[in-house]
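I am still getting used to backbone structure tokens and would like to learn alongside you. Label the sequence line and the structure token line clearly, so we can match residues to local backbone shapes. Go ahead whenever you are ready, and we will take it from there:
>
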Amino acid sequence: MLAYEAVVRRVLEAAKKLVPETWLDETLRDDGTTTPTNDAGVVSLLEVDGMKLLLTGDAGIPALTRVLDELEESGFASGDLCFVQVPHHGSRNNVGPTVLDRLLGPTANGIPRGVACVSAPKKNPDNRHPAKKVTTFLRRGYPVHATQGVARPNYDGGPGHHVAVPLYLVTSWLARL
């Protein structure tokens, strides 16, 4: 019986990979785990000239959930952020749909709410950071800008700067290209 269950489990996992991700169908999951050290990091909410910016460090789902519990008690509403840092270099294990809905709001149907930025190296093993699933921030109105070897991305491309171009939403179809 155990061998049968293992086979069924593997078939179901393989089938999940065949389900295409689209603008409406999200495959990011809420069961991502990270280390206790990452979850013990500092998360900072800054308010500058009425704009809210959230720096998440390496926080994972448990830490972000605790932070959101506190913020919501103080009147924070999803979608209030102007800027959010994507946690842990864009790891898919550090965010999930439930946390993102509470933090950024539900799918925004292409309506911009703010900007997300992920600090990730230009070259990294297996091209894991940022994870393609993390582009789901865009679904919630936060296009993701990745540093990936560019020291100071910004919008205007002024002297010594590079224009920041957001990542596109990666669907299962695009991931196969």
Summary: Helices lie at 2-18, 36-39, 61-73, 97-104, 172-175. The chain has five helices and seven strands.
